[in-house]
Amino acid sequence: MISMSAPTSPKKGTSPPAAQQQQAQQHQQAEQEDMGLGGLVLTHMDLKLKFKASFSEAVSRFTIDVHEPFLTTTKLKASLTRYVDDLVDDEGLPVESTDGPPRRLVERVAQYWAAGYDWRAVEQDLNARLPQYTTLVKTPGTDYADAIPLHFVHKRSARPDAIPLLFLHGWPGSFLEVEHLLEPLTNPESADEPAFHVVAPSIPGYGFSPAPRKAGMGYRQTAAAFAALMRRLGYDRYVWQGGDAGSFIGHFLCLDFPDSVVAAHSNFWVVPPTPEDQERRARHETTEDEDFVMARLGRFADVGWSYGQIQQTKPLKLAAGLTDSPVGLAMWIYDACAAVCADPEALFAPERLITWTMMHWIPGPYAAFSLYKNGRKDGVISTKGVHAMPFATQPIAISQFPLDLGYRTPLDWAKRTGNVVSCARHDRGGHFAALDAPDLLVADVRAFFGDRERSGTQAFVPPPPPPVRTRGQSVGMREWHVR
């Protein structure tokens, strides 16, 4: 691992009266959200969900319970999968094309899903390991007036100095990405390591956060929904960690809720080259890292971004087919993951691939696809790739993994879009760092947020208890006596 650091920008303090006024305004906003809900309760019947659920302004414990007829139909559909034949060579032997997953992989997943996969066992395991909840929020101050039902994992640490951390997943992941991080972050083995209260919400339309009923749920609107969730849970200030779409959502949290976000850690900090960078490259004045990044971003735009191009332009066209074929959806997801991990067939073996696909199959994939279309309207992405985002002022640390898009992004480039104070560059891991390199990701999160001064997380250290005053003990220039 190579670590790079930059000086931390000084952060202005907030006077106690200003802080109290800010806190009062936040509480008032939260109360307005609750008043706007008017006691609204949305159930799985109201929302036509494939699982049992209830959403209200209360924070309620949630247990995954998918409807049995839906599971039966899913297995039937998997068993009826129609396959595409592989191409053959001059001798008639199969040749695996680079156009997509080979037939042998499709057959393996379809057959396992139809005959071997046990969703109820997966469901039981997730319910036992992940404390899950639901609530209903509104986002005053945005153009999205509808109530937003949310599902989330929430695990508090026993440590009094624990830091509230919002974990932000991306596509085609889900809240499942937090499963290997939850225990080490909330319950570190050493008292010298920072502890966290972890909140891991499902983006609306992913997992068990129901799909939005109205258009407009992009990265920025999702950020507003998650900010409302954190206020609902009593976290007026917090940090976030995220990758993929989660990093975009977190960036908007920094921009739109600067008084709430203290600091951030991203494992997907992509900064495209400027025209000046391209001109320097043409003159052979760029560094090896700059050349590497520009070449990788160029290849991604040319051949790797096809899934993102259709999801941001014709998401409903794509969803029409993949809402009806569980194996087709699994292969769409697998193909997007294959290029960004070292051994995709091992990392996304049938059991995990199907479970990840279920997080999109259960709600239907349209909302997750259309997040790209709405994200395009937010200005974050286009058919040409990822765009530069506005500057975020909070202290930010980034982690780079060799199979991810932003690997080897120079620190001076990273600082163009945020107050990036450190960068950890690793020699293993890919786009799904929480899955294939959780030890490295946890270490980076601890190192940054554990540096209270650099990250600003001294804000979460509880004040020391008042001194115990006993008879005859001198305190400063005064002496206390008990009569």
Automatic annotation (TrEMBL):
Provide the alphabetized UniProt keywords: Aromatic hydrocarbons catabolism, Hydrolase
Q: Does the keyword Amino-acid biosynthesis apply?
A: no
Q: Name one Pfam family in it.
A: EHN
Q: Which SUPFAM superfamilies match?
A: alpha/beta-Hydrolases
Q: Name the domain of life.
A: Eukaryota
Q: Which residues form the Epoxide hydrolase N-terminal domain?
A: 60-178
> In what ranges is there compositional bias, type Low complexity?
18-29
Q: Does the keyword Hydrolase apply?
A: yes
Which stretches does the entry tag as region Disordered? 1-33, 455-483
> Where do Polar residues bias regions lie?
1-12
The protein here is known as Epoxide hydrolase N-terminal domain-containing protein
Organism this protein belongs to: Apiospora marii
